[in-house]
Amino acid sequence: MNGRDRRHRAACPPPAAPASPHTPVTVVELDLADPGEVRSPGGRGPAAPDGRVSALVRLHGHPLGMVHATGTSGRPAALARALAAAAHRELGAPAVPDAPALPDPPAAPGAPAGPEGQSAQQSAPRAARCPAGGMSVVICTRDRTELLADCLDSVLRAADTLTAAGPGGTVEVLLVDNAPAGPDTERLVAERYPGRIRYLCEPAPGLSRARNRGLAAARGTLCAFTDDDALADPGWLAALAAAFAADPRTGCVTGLVVPAELDTPAQQLFERYAGTERGWTPRDWNLDAPGAGPLDRYSTGRCGIGANMAFRTGLLRTLGGFDPATGTGTPARGGEDLLAFHLVLTAGHTVAYRPDAVVWHRHRRTLHALTVQVSGLGIGFGAYLAAALRRHPALLGDLLLRLPAGAIGWHRGHRPPAADTPLDRRRLRALRRMERRGLAQGPPRYLYTRRQQHHTPGGG
Q1: Is there a contact between 72 and 53 (Cβ–Cβ < 8 Å)?
Q2: Torsion of CA 360, 365, 369, 371, to 10 degrees
Q3: What integer is the mean pLDDT of 354-372?
Q4: The model's pTM
Q5: Nearest CA to 351 among 390, 391, 301?
Q6: C-alpha to C-alpha distance for 293 and 246, rounded to whole angstroms
């Protein structure tokens, strides 16, 4: 029940690099409106990679797709030219001299309609201003201080970009330390970000509990969420704010998530298996809209993921926030983001996907961590369905009718790409089996977690 739209293109394949998943791939970005410089993800400055390169290509900030090439140490200009040529050839992007001054976000070839969501148009993120009521950004972490500085720096850059756009409200950044084993995270915030980041501690473990702690403390009328292993693009918050400003019916906005690094076999395998892209075209989902599909209320994985999502604060609070029996840190392992999207839709609001709102994600680096994660994806999806039915028992009959079509769509979405090696294909099949087994475990794990929390003092 997960829709995926992938526009990775093999451009300028490296003649000397071995065709092995063990070869690291450097991730960069290139804007065709300023093609003289290749940059690192998350606004971290110029990049001059040597070896295999995967690049997010943009035009005036709008993501077009990803292409691949080979970089040579000391020749960043040659890499920029190769990537620009690849984007023109493989993605249909305008040749650099012919790039229009004010482009619209391009439509992805064969972009689905109807059940996949209605296409939508939106102004460029640079026109956005911070809403008068302000915007809150919540980042939850647990004993991963080594990742935090890059993440927090990137979020602050995004906040500065939004507030610099013109008069409006303020942006606050809240870091929720979830059941920490020591004071390292609190010390980092106090020493490096005094007055810029609000530190909160949620002693009970669980991502949903941590997010609810941030939601309760948020002062902004909009509340965005990302993860401690993610890097926010400088225009991330501006794109989210623009989507909310464009339509008062929008209750939730998600955005594009692309890899921040592809250094290890596990990271590359995850991109092949699932990736984190939802496509290059803006889309809206609303259950009352013409063409809404029968699976829309259940297949919320196609809407986005928790590393890149924002809500109207009052709406999310009215809906009860995140179910504490779902999410990382519980036996249910996940599903809290999918349930939140589902609740926004069933409450009659729109979930909007805007690819201009970019977050870069650092995937799990080891194969063991990847297998644990993929198993958790299946468990979390099953837990989400159980949680949705607990809230709306009348949906059970409808869901049972939709399961065969959903299972077919899920199977098609996990077919190994033809370019994979035999080893890749075996690994991908193993991951698919692992996720499928996890799906069956999700409902009983969710019910167990609810009983466990019910009998725990303060468990909710």
Answers
A1: no
A2: 80
A3: 96
A4: 0.87
A5: 301
A6: 24
Rounded to the nearest 5 degrees, what angle is found at the Cα of 314, between the Cα atoms of 309 and 317? 80
CA separation for the pair 253, 168 (Å, rounded): 20
Q: Nearest-CA neighbor of 40 among 281, 259, 341, 305?
A: 259
298 and 342 Cβ atoms separated by less than 8 Å: yes
6-17 in b/e form (b: 16+ CB < 10 A) is ebbeebbebeee
Contact assessment for residue 213 and residue 206, using Cβ atoms and an 8 Å cutoff: no
How sure is the predictor about 125, in pLDDT bands with cuts at 50, 70 and 90? very low
Confirm if 147 and 362 have CB atoms less than 8 A apart.
yes
Q: Answer whether 242's CB lies under 8 Å from 316's CB.
A: no
Query: Within 10 Å of residue 50's Cβ, how many Cβ atoms?
Result: 13
| Token duo for residue 250 | 């929008």
Q: Closest by alpha carbon to 9, among 93, 112, 73, 100?
A: 93
Q: CA 460, CA 453: separation in Å to the nearest integer?
A: 6
Residue 43 pLDDT level (bands cut at 50, 70, 90): confident
Strand ranges (E), 72-211: 118-119, 135-141, 171-178, 197-202
Model pLDDT for residues 266-307, shown as the tens digit of each residue: 999 999 888 756 789 999 999 988 777 667 788 899 999 999
Q: What mean pLDDT comes out for the span 139-161?
A: 96
Q: Which structural domains are found in the chain, ordered by start? A: 8-96 (no CATH), 124-368 (3.90.550.10)
What per-residue string of b and e applies to 334-366 under the rule 16 or more CB within 10 Å gives b? bbbbbbbbbbbbeeebbbbbbbbbbbbbbbbee
Residue 265's φ and ψ, nearest 5 degrees, are -55, -35
SS3 state of residue 262: strand
